[in-house]
Design a protein that fits this description.
The complex is a heterodimer. Chain A is mostly helical. Chain A has eleven helices and two strands. In chain A, strands 1-2 form a two-stranded antiparallel sheet. In chain B, helix 2 crosses helix 11. Classes of the chains: A mainly alpha, B alpha/beta.
């Protein structure tokens, strides 16, 4: 298979996990969580720290997951306990994590190419497909459980959850922790896939996540059977595909981001205009 | 569940088809006068990196290497740099020039199977970044030019210092005690200083507000200040430079941006030259077919001097001072 295409799909799958994470805060909890810009590289740095000390890559990735959950807890504490606005809590966590990420290994860039990765045994594509499918199924199952329903209700109708005698804050905390844990895992998988960790890898990652979710939303939006998690996966792969087409077309290098944006706008416009015919 | 899985599979299939359609370009004109395919991967649009790139292309032309150059800029997005590297590999490029560390690591990762030669430039520490294990004999498909401040460069700094103040025996260094990067720079400077018979007086700071007192203490023991790449000191360079000027101290650095912020003189590498050096390496690989393990990682040996005329006048130095010969100037 074409190398560019393969790496596009691999990155799309990695970003699917990121998108599922952000889907929980952005769509379900209605919480604009910007801290992912810090949690994504946090996962990569935590993973690097453990792999450099000789830990197993699977365990290292799980440590990243755990670190992400802790970062979610920080945002939750700032927002709920210290009553700081959601968007500012995220920004504060992100800013805090920037320094923490640099401190974890004492360097802003770590080469990992000579260390083992979770992909070693089965190959990147297969491992990533397994990861994404397992995470998607676990999330779908969780969202159908009692706790999951209450999580959804917390975003939709807080009063209802309160009237049931449940604590809304608890579900906000759970949502933020799961979300950031997934984002950090995605960062750890990314670091292993690209063979290095860099402090800039979180830059504008929130844009990637939101664009993925929005693109996913517009795909066959009349069809209810598509779950949010599925839409996030489709969106992330599509978004990466758009990026790779922009690279493949090879227009002026300065225009890469612009072209990606134009293609996304094209998708959205096509979808929205197409809607009129059905209405 | 089944339906949604189907849809994911369809998305992937569409991806394959779309990509297949667009990758028809690039027919290689094989026989006569082989034109090489060179991919240049740059991490972000930045003056220093741009001049490295321009130097590379300029030198290639001088060497009469005909090449189809495909320039890609990741626009600061690390994930993009990975895709760009993969594109160069699937285009069957003869060589990849990677500018800065993340793009170089991405190129390394993408060429693991194809072993396409990769030349990096503007990478400070290729060993720590995992690009090569042995600087003298790179073991894989990667070599290049680093932008570290070399011993040669440090020697030039001390020599200029001696021309400016022949009687000098001590030079001061300000550094942030929290930056590990600064510690290692100081150790190297002390080694060279020992050879040059100059004593180093280092003063640690923990916050920008310490700079005033620290400089006061340095100025009592020395008449010159060597500026290192310390983030705290660099970010308050205007302050450091103006305090030093008040005390009539010489400020000397390896980084020309310090001179723009008011330091007296810098002797440092030129990114344009780094690019040209990388092109010489490319010529060895493409034309002479030298194996990469015979091409050691190099650091630049062409140094550019830059002088701040305003600062020079303020501390009573003439702009035609022999130490400033051939220097670029800034007001």
């Amino acid at each position: 298979m074409n190398g560019l295409l393969l790496v596009t799909i691999e990155q799309g799958l990695i970003f699917s996990i990121l998108a599922i994470g952000v889907y929980i805060t952005y769509k379900i909890l209605d919480f604009p969580d910007l801290s992912v810009e810090g949690t994504f590289p946090l996962g990569a740095f935590v993973f690097s720290k453990f792999i450099l000390t000789g830990m197993d890559p699977i365990l290292g990735s799980l440590m990243a997951l755990l670190a992400g959950a802790l970062a979610g807890l920080i945002t939750y504490t700032l927002n709920i306990k210290f009553k700081i606005k959601a968007i500012l809590s995220g920004i504060l966590t992100m800013t805090l994590l920037y320094s923490i990420n640099l401190r974890i290994n004492g360097r802003s860039n770590i080469g990992l190419s000579s260390y083992p990765t979770v992909y070693d045994k089965l190959g990147k594509l297969i491992v990533l497909i397994i990861c994404v499918v397992v995470i998607k199924m676990l999330m779908d199952r969780y969202l159908k459980s009692e706790s999951g329903y209450l999580l959804i209700a917390t975003g939709d109708n807080e009063t209802l959850v309160k009237s049931l005698g449940e604590n809304v804050d608890k579900y906000r905390m759970v949502g933020l922790m799961i979300s950031n844990a997934l984002v950090a895992l995605s960062g750890a998988l990314m670091a292993q896939s690209q063979g290095f960790t860099d402090i800039t890898m979180g830059n504008s990652i929130i844009v990637v996540a939101l664009a993925s979710i929005i693109i996913g939303d517009t795909v066959m939006k009349k069809r209810d059977f598509l779950k949010g998690t599925t839409r996030a996966i489709i969106g992330a792969i599509s978004y990466k595909l758009i990026g790779s087409i922009a690279i493949e077309i090879g227009l002026a290098p300065t225009d890469l981001k612009g072209i990606s944006a134009v293609i996304v706008i094209g998708f959205l416009a096509y979808n929205n205009l197409g809607d009129k015919n059905y209405a | 569940m089944k339906k949604s899985l189907k849809l994911i599979v369809t998305t992937i299939l569409i991806a394959i088809i779309l990509n297949g359609c667009s990758s028809t370009e690039g027919k290689i004109n094989s026989n006569e006068n082989k034109k090489f395919k060179i991919g240049i991967a740059q991490i972000i649009d930045h003056p220093a990196l741009n001049s490295a790139r321009d130097g590379f292309v300029e030198r290639l032309n001088e060497l009469d290497i005909e090449a189809d150059i495909n320039l890609q800029d990741a626009q600061g997005d690390v994930a993009n740099s990975q895709m760009i590297a993969e594109k160069f590999v699937s285009d069957k490029s003869d060589l990849i020039l990677s500018i800065a560390t993340p793009t170089s690591q991405a190129a390394q990762n993408a060429t693991k199977k194809s072993m396409t030669p990769v030349i990096f430039t503007a990478v400070s520490d290729p060993v720590f970044s995992g690009l090569v294990k042995n600087i003298e004999a790179p073991e894989s498909n990667i070599t290049g030019v680093t932008d570290e401040v070399s011993s040669e460069n440090l020697k030039h700094i001390f020599q200029t210092l001696k021309i400016l103040k022949p009687e000098i025996d001590t030079a001061g260094i300000l550094f942030n005690t929290g930056e590990s990067n600064s510690q290692s720079q100081i150790e190297r400077i002390e080694e060279i200083a020992f050879e040059e018979d100059i004593k180093i007086e280092k003063v640690g700071i923990a916050a920008i507000s310490d700079i005033n007192q620290a400089l006061e203490s340095v100025s009592r023991k020395s008449q010159a200040l060597i500026l290192i790449n310390d983030n705290m000191v660099a970010s308050s360079m205007e302050l450091v430079a103006s305090l030093a000027k008040e005390k009539n101290m010489i400020t000397i650095s390896g980084d020309s941006s310090h001179v723009d912020s008011g330091a007296l003189v810098s002797i440092g590498i030129s990114y344009h030259e780094l690019g040209r050096q990388a092109a010489d390496m490319a010529a060895k690989i493409l034309k002479e077919k030298t194996p990469i393990n015979k091409i050691p990682v190099e650091s630049s040996n062409v140094f550019i001097k830059k002088v701040n005329i305003t600062t020079a006048k303020a501390i009573g130095l003439n702009e035609n001072h022999p130490a400033f010969k051939d220097a670029d100037t800034v007001e």
